[in-house]
Amino acid sequence: MPPRAPAPMTVTRPELLIDGSDAVFRKLIHASFGFLARHEAVRASFGQRIGLSGVEYTVLVAIGHLTAGGGTVIISQLAAHLHLSGAFVTTTTSRLAKKGLITKDVDPEDRRKICLNLTEQAWSTLADLAPIQQQVNDIEFAPLSAGELPRIVALFENLIDSSEKALKLQEFLKEH
């Protein structure tokens, strides 16, 4: 079989090319898929242990963390925190409310807003799950140092923002 020309590069930004090649960038993309698939399986397993889907588990935990100091969180804040749509969060929180894990109350100061809080049942469930979460998360994220953790969080936040822009560009290019 005759040799083929190299595959076209998938990026052109000099910062993403090492020695004129996109091989390291492609390795990053493929490693990201591998990590995210495994992390999704971890999340699904946590949810399954407490009778929830992975996304229901994530929403429940996020409400718990955002309200832990005795405060409250509204749907739009939760959606922004999780980088999800308000409609999706509304649907998911309705399922959690039906399961008796959260309360959804009208904000007395702004009746358009819905305040979310965990029920005692949810707090108890999460407390029971915590030792397992700690063991699994400690292993999954063992490679990160204290200095790397804030940097990787900032990096992911920036990648989420740039991914939104990339999706908009894709939509535009599809139409033109």
Automatic annotation (TrEMBL):
Residues 21-161 form the HTH marR-type domain. InterPro entries: HTH_MarR-typ, WH-like_DNA-bd_sf, WH_DNA-bd_sf. SMART domains: HTH_MARR. GO terms for molecular function: DNA binding; DNA-binding transcription factor activity. PROSITE patterns: HTH_MARR_2 (PS50995). Keywords: DNA-binding, Transcription, Transcription regulation. Pfam families: MarR (PF01047). This is MarR family transcriptional regulator. It comes from Paenirhodobacter populi.
